[in-house]
């Protein structure tokens, strides 16, 4: 009976289309050849629980409806690529957040200059190096979990290569005595119905202490994905239309019925 394999294939395709509500987008090369951002995504969403994409994919990750959370990274030698990407797809990226999406946008450039991050005129200023940073507010959720231990002060060479401009609520700032004391290295703002975090951080392999710094990066991802509410679980699966749920249920019932009929044939 050919109908049963067809139904099973349809179920598999539909189930696959409902998965992977989180994505990590980077440029043609990994910043500093490191995979610590990927490790942080695995920590939050589980291996295979997120999409590993490239800027060369265009605006599709922001327009397809397949993702609720996106981590867009443009550090090291991909900063110019990020600047071009943001200029080209700013409308789609901002619409994604405005309609309720969550975005972590970060770059610690090693090339180019300032980058227009958008979202009301936020500028990533480069070069602006930070070696020592602290929590702007120790009570902010990213400094409390869900991944621990985590502390409220960090050092690195460098922790950040850039700072972000006005219009943001600061999360991480230059520490007292740092060249960029008080400047925002990571900040956030609500934009429409969504949340965006904007930063100039290097990858966490440059940060101390460890494992606290790695946990902080995972907490930042979890916080953003949860829309700023860590009482919620980070969204791994995008919001699913009612018709999709109904169709999946019908197909599963149909497959079960066909199996019973095949067993009596």
Helical proportion, percent range: 25-40%
Runs in which pLDDT lies below 50 for 5 or more consecutive residues are: 1-20, 232-247
Query: Proportion of β residues?
Result: 15-25%
- Major β-sheet strand ordering: 2-1-3-4-12-11-10-7-8-13
Name the overall outline: globular
Radius of gyration: 21 Å
Round the mean pLDDT to the nearest integer and report it: 87
Number of helices: 6
Walk me through this protein's architecture.
This protein is an alpha/beta fold and 265 residues long. The protein contains six helices and 13 strands. The strands form two sheets. It has a ten-stranded mixed beta sheet with strand order 2-1-3-4-12-11-10-7-8-13, with helices on both faces. Strands 5-6-9 form a three-stranded antiparallel beta sheet. β1, α2 and β2 form a beta-alpha-beta unit. α1 packs antiparallel against α6 (242-264) and α2 (36-45) packs across α5. The longest helix has 23 residues, at 242-264. The radius of gyration is 21 Å and the shape is globular. The relative contact order is 0.18. Residues 1-20 and 232-247 have low confidence and may be disordered.
